[in-house]
Design a protein that fits this description.
Length: 435
């Protein structure tokens, strides 16, 4: 999947026989999505050792084509066994992923866990009236707890998630010595001493003002821009919600609230306003801005999902015919997307990893042969990385994807194009050696 930049069984197989073998693998009842997911973390355990790890959590919806109009969509969903996504008439699967990222360098260290599931239907009972065990939101707690033993060798862990993961059971159950939480706030929570969280934030003194470069995040933010942000922070203690079913949870949890609010945003732009809760103590400006930076690292998991879907592996275009097989394909594709993301980051050459096993011996030879043909006369257009390293391979792939060596470093789309072109060249080279 990584090298051919696809989840299409026909293209994965290479020929009719290979396509049939790929189909048989995902049809095999002994192959399960859960078993594939359970193998995600194996390379990551060693990679996290001695590091401060940001364990990024998020969920993505995977909408698979079921037909043009509402009636044919329902019929197509029934044929494939796909459940509703709460997105109009869309049907498909959901994937929840935890990704390990180095807090200092931003390097993707690998996957830590997650789940892929198919909704049997929509639940009419309000979420707050159901115990956590009967709610989809339990995935945030379960994934964090599942990852804890896999992060034993890390120096420190900060679990980071967006507003959907703002759950009291997560605050009350997950933090341990060396394991922290950082979340964007969704709910205006009651405070232990009285009052509400948002009112407390409004009373914090202005601590700093600075400019922050914001990446483009279509469709919400189609273009990158510079924002002027005001920073406030202070200690708060949130109270257990009155409708919380689990009364064994602590009655209150002490946290730190960091608020950043954009000043004078452009007229057409949605202003930045982040209220960030964390178990980290924040004593000064440097620590407060560090919390903001760690939250911004969430963009890495968004990149993973982009690679998984329309701007990479195009998983949602799969024609696999049943939800069960699509679940297995999704579990494998998430791993492939993570490897592709690591290949994108390898272009920096910070960690000297060998090109194998991501590329086999023959492919490494093709990469070595291609590199001189892609180099220019000036230093910036020459491959600066050690031969047969992953960074050396990433440079070649990026050049094949039309990166010219200047300006912004190549991203997932460039690498995707480069991988497709490389695979075609490699096939031609192998054919040439056989004649």
């Amino acid at each position: 999947m990584v090298l051919r930049a696809t989840t299409c069984l026909r293209r994965l197989g290479g020929d009719r026989r290979g396509e049939r073998q790929a189909g048989q693998f995902f049809a095999n009842r002994k192959v399960t999505a859960a078993a594939i997911i359970d193998s995600w973390h194996q390379p990551s355990v060693e990679a996290v050792a001695g590091r401060h790890v940001l364990a990024l959590q998020d969920t993505t919806a995977l909408s698979f084509a079921t037909g043009g109009d509402a009636q044919s969509a329902r019929g197509g969903a029934a044929r494939r066994g796909l459940g509703p996504l709460n997105q109009g008439n869309a049907h498909g699967l959901l994937a929840h992923v935890m990704l390990a990222v180095d807090a200092d360098s931003g390097d993707c260290l690998g996957l830590l866990g997650g789940t892929v599931w198919n909704r049997p239907g929509l639940v009419s009972t309000a979420e707050h009236k159901r115990p956590l065990s009967e709610r989809e939101s339990r995935r945030w707690v379960e994934t964090a707890e599942q990852a804890r033993p896999r992060l034993d060798q890390a120096a420190q862990v900060t679990v980071v998630h967006d507003r959907e993961g703002d759950l009291y059971p997560l605050w009350a159950r997950v933090p341990r010595q060396g394991m922290h939480l950082l979340s964007r706030v969704m709910l205006d929570r009651r405070l232990s001493g009285g009052g509400l969280l948002f009112d407390a934030a409004a009373c914090f003194a202005l601590a700093d003002r600075r400019q922050l470069e914001l990446r483009a995040q279509p469709p919400q933010r189609p273009q990158a821009r510079t924002a002027t942000l005001e920073l406030r922070f202070g200690a708060v203690t949130i109270a257990r919600p009155v409708n919380e079913k689990d009364r064994s949870l602590a009655a209150a949890v002490p946290l730190t609230l960091v608020e950043v609010r954009e000043v004078d945003p452009p007229a057409a732009a949605e202003p930045i306003h982040w209220r960030l809760l964390t178990t980290h103590a924040v004593a000064d400006l440097a620590q407060a801005w560090r919390i903001v930076g760690w939250y911004q690292a969430r963009w890495t998991i968004e990149q993973l999902f982009r690679i998984l879907k329309s701007q990479g592996l195009r998983l949602e275009d799969s024609q696999v015919t049943t939800a069960e097989r699509l679940g297995k394909l999704t579990a494998a594709a998430v791993k492939a997307a993570c490897l592709t993301l690591q290949l994108v980051q390898a272009r920096e050459g910070v960690r000297h990893r060998p090109a194998r096993p991501m590329f086999d011996a023959a492919e490494v030879d093709t990469l070595a042969a291609l590199s001189p043909t892609l180099e220019g006369r000036v230093a910036r257009q020459r491959n600066p990385h050690p031969p047969r390293s992953l960074a050396h391979a990433a440079w070649v792939i990026a050049r094949l994807g039309s990166w010219h060596g200047y300006g912004r470093p190549p991203g997932p789309i460039t690498m995707h194009r480069g991988l497709e072109r490389f695979f075609a060249i490699h096939q031609g080279r192998m054919l040439a050696t056989q004649t």
